[in-house]
Amino acid sequence: MFQPRRTRTAAFIAISALSVGALTGCAANSTSSAGGDNQLEITSWWTSGSEADALQVLIDAVKKADPGLEVENAAVSGGGGANARQALAARLQASAPPDAWQLHPAGQLASYVSGNQVADISDLWADNDWAANLPEDVASAQQVDGKYYTVPVGVHRGNVLWTSPTVLEAAGVTLDPSAGVDQFVEDMQTVAASGTTAVCLGDKDVFASAELLESIIMARVGSDNWNALFTGDYSFDAPEVQQALADYKTLLGLANSDHSALTWDEAAKNVGAGKCGVTLMGDWAYGELVNAGYEPKTDFAWSAFPGETDIFDYVGDGFSIPATNIPNAEAAKVWLETVMDPEVQTAFAAVKGSIPARTDADVSSLSEYQQSAVESFTTADIVSSLAHGQVTTAEFSQTYADAVSTFNGDGSIDAFIATMTAAQKNQL
Amino acid sequence: MPSLTRTGTAAPTRGRTGASAGDPAAGTTAPHTQKPQRKLRHHGVATSRRAAWIFAPSLLVSLIFVYIFIGTTVYISLSNWKIGTTQDLSLRTPVGATYTELFAEQRFQADMRNIIVFTVLFLLLSIGGGLVWALLIHHVAAGRGFFRTVFLLPYALSFIVTGVAWRWIFAPSTGVNEILRAIGIENPPGWTTDTTILGALNEPGADLKIQLGIPIALLPIIFAAGWQLTGFAMAMYLSGLAAIPEEHLEAASVDGASTWQRLRYIVIPQLWPATITCFVLLLHVALKIFDLVVAMSGSGPGFVTDVPGIYIYNYLSSRYDKASAMAIVLLVLTLCVIVPYLIRGYRREKQS
C-alpha cells in the first residue's frame, strides 16, 4: 500500500507544478493562431451591426491589396470602446500588441504617445502626402508634438440635432442653425408649450448629456476658446461657459424626466416616433434611426447645433501601430495605406454612416445627411470632442463626465465650475 | 484546529492516488470511509513536514495572488501612476494625496453612502427573506421541491440578465408605474431616475458634498439584488433547519412552548451558523456589486446609484492610482466587518 517516500514527494511536486502551470497558462493567453506567416491582427470596438460591416469593408480591402494576407479581427465590444481599450492596455503591458488598433486621435492618441506605445509614422505620411488631402485641423489632430502617430479613416460629427419634423411643425418652430443658442432655447420652450416634450435625452451612459453640454459650450464660446479651455488659456469660469450651463439646465428641464433610465439610442428612436422635438447625438444616430425603420426627411430630420458660427464637433476614428514588438510590420503598413485610400474611405463611410476624412474622396454615392456633413466638414471650424475623450487627456475627460453627472443631480453651476477650474489647474 | 488536522492526514491518501493510478482501491475510497480499517498514526515531525509540502503550493499562490497583489495595489494608490498603460511608480507627494483627493470628491462620498445603504438593506432583505421562505418551505409539506427550485432559480442567473429585466420593470414611463397609475397613483416614483434622498440628515456643504440618507434610486436595485439572492439564503437556512434535531422541538412542545417560542428559543439560535455564513458570503456580493447596477441604472444623476465598483472601472484607464485607492477603501470596508468576525472565531477555537 505504501510507496517509497521519494515517489510520493515527486508526485506532490508534479501536482504543484501542474497547478501553477495551469494558472500561468491562463494568464499568458497565447496570441498564436493556425495559418500562414503573413498575418495581420486588428483590434477595435466595432462589433455591432453596421460597425462590424464597416470593419469588414476595410478587411476585404486590405486582403485585396495584399493577397494571401490572413486578417484576424480581434474586436472587443461594449462600453463605447472602454472595454476594448482595457483589453488593449493589458496586451500592451504584456508587450504582446496587435499589428494595429483603433483609437480616437488627439488626446487619446497622446496618452499612447506618452507611454511610447505607438509608432511614429511621419515618414509614411510624407511618402503618401496625406496631409495635402485632409483639412488642416484634422491633420493636426493626428499629430503629437509635430509628429504623426495615427491615420484618420473616418469622421463622425458629435453636435447634430436630430429633429422630428411633425413635432416642430405642430409647434410652429423652424430651427435655424445660424440663429444662435438663445433662439434655440426659446424654440424649445415653444415646443414644450405646445404640449410635447421638447428634448429627448437618454443619458444612462452619461456621455449623452456630456455631449449636449459640450455642444452648448462650443456654440457659446467659439472654436478658438474651446481649444483654449484645454491649454488653460481660457477658463471654465468665463461668463460664456456659465451661460452655457444655464442653457443646459433649461434644456434639461425641458427633457423627458426619465432621461437617466434611457440609453441614447432609445432617445433617438423616440424622436423618430415623434414623441419629442429634438435630440442631440453624434451622427451614428443616423444609422440607428434608419435601421429602426424611420425615413430620413419625413420621420426625422437634422440640423447642426445652432451657434454663431458653424462648428464641427469632430469624433474621429483612426488606426495606429505599435512602436515595439510589432508582429508583422509590413502588413501593418499595408493596412494603414489601405484605410487611407479615398475609395476605401468612401466604401467604409457608406456602411458606417460617418464621412471620409480625405477631402478628395468621392462622396456622391453617400446619403443626403452624409453629403451635408461633408459640406460642413470642409467649411466649418473643426474642434475635437471632450465627451469622447478626444480633445484632451483621459483624466480630464473623466473629470468632465463626473462633473456632468453631478450637475445632472444637483444642478449647481458653481460646483461644476469649481470642479472644472480646479481640473484646469491640476490636470493640464 | 480540527479541520487542519483532518486534511493533514487525509491528503497523503490523495497524494498516493495521484502517484499510483493503477491501484483502484486508492482511487475510489474516500478518506473517512476507510477510517475504521486505517491504522492510526501519530502526528510526528514527518507528517507535519508532509503537511507543509501539501500546503506549499496553495500558500505560495495565495501569497503571490492575494497578499503581494494587495501590497502592490496599496503602493500604486500612493504613486503617480495615472494612465493605465504608462507605468509611473514614483511616490506622490505629500504621501497619501490621492486619498485626500478621493475623500473630497462628491462622487466618492456618494459611493460610500450608496454602498453602505445598499449593503445594510440588501443583507436585511435577503437574509430575512431567506429565513421566511425557508421556514415556510420546511413546514409546508406540499410542493416543497417545487418552491425550493422556484426560489433558488434566480440565483443561477447572471446579474446582467436579471438587471436588464429589472431595468424595464422599474422604467419610470413603463413597467411597474403603469400598474401604479392604473390603480390611481398619479405621480408614481421615478425609481432609478429619482434623486431624492429619503430621511436626509443634512444639507450638502463644502466638505460633505452629499446628503446622507437613503437614495430612492437605490431601492429598486436593492430589491432586485434581494430577489436574486434570497434563494441562496433560503438554501442555507433549509440545510440548517434539517440539522435541528426533532427531539429538541418535541421536548419543547411537551413543555408547552408555543410555536413562536419554539422558533425564537430553539430554531433561530440553532440557525445562527447559517446566518453567519449567509452574512459573510452575501456581504461580499454587496460590496463588490457592479454588474447589476451597470445593467439597471449606471451611475445615475448626481451619482445616486453609483457604487465603488463602477468608480474603479471608470478610472482604471485614466487614473490608475485613484482606482487603486478606491479598491483599497473597498478592502478596508470588507475588513471592518470580517476581521471582528475572524477574531471572535479564533477566540472561540482557543477556548475549546
What can you see in these coordinates?
The complex is a heterodimer of chains A (428) and B (352). Chain A has 428 residues and is an alpha/beta fold. Helices cover 50% and strands 13% of the residues of chain A. Chain A folds into 2 domains: 39-156 and 315-377, 3-Layer(aba) Sandwich (D-Maltodextrin-Binding Protein, domain 2), CATH 3.40.190; 160-313 and 385-427, D-Maltodextrin-Binding Protein, domain 2 (3-Layer(aba) Sandwich). In chain A, the strands form 3 sheets. In chain A, strands 1, 2, 3, 6, 11, 12 and 13 form a 7-stranded mixed sheet that branches. In chain A, strands 8-9-7-10 form a 4-stranded mixed sheet. In chain A, strands 4-5 form a two-stranded antiparallel sheet. In chain A, helix 2 (49-65) crosses helix 13 (329-339) and helix 9 (207-228) packs antiparallel against helix 10. Chain A is globular, with a radius of gyration of 24 Å. The relative contact order of chain A is 0.16. With 352 residues, chain B is mainly α. Chain B folds into 2 domains: 2-77, no CATH class; 99-351, MetI-like fold. Chain B is built from 15 helices and 2 strands. Mean pLDDT of chain B is 85; it is low at 1-35. Classes of the chains: A alpha/beta (428), B mainly alpha (352).
Question: What is the topology?
Answer:
The complex is a heterodimer of chains A (428) and B (352).
Chain A: H1 5-27, E1 39-43, H2 49-65, E2 70-73, H3 82-93, E3 100-103, H4 107-114, H5 122-128, H6 136-141, E4 143-144, E5 147-148, E6 151-157, E7 160-163, H7 165-171, H8 181-193, E8 197-199, H9 207-228, H10 239-253, H11 264-272, E9 276-281, H12 284-291, E10 301-304, E11 311-320, H13 329-339, H14 342-352, E12 355-356, H15 368-379, E13 381-384, H16 394-410, H17 413-427
Parallel strand pairs in A: 1-2, 1-3, 8-9, 11-13
Antiparallel strand pairs in A: 3-11, 4-5, 6-11, 6-12, 7-9, 7-10
Helix pairs in contact in A: 2-13, 2-14, 7-8, 9-10, 9-16, 16-17
Chain B: H1 2-19, H2 24-28, H3 45-77, H4 97-103, H5 106-139, H6 144-152, H7 159-169, H8 176-182, E1 197-198, E2 214-215, H9 218-242, H10 246-254, H11 259-270, H12 272-287, H13 291-296, H14 308-315, H15 320-351
Helix pairs in contact in B: 1-3, 3-15, 5-6, 5-9, 5-12, 6-9, 7-9, 9-12, 10-11, 12-15, 14-15
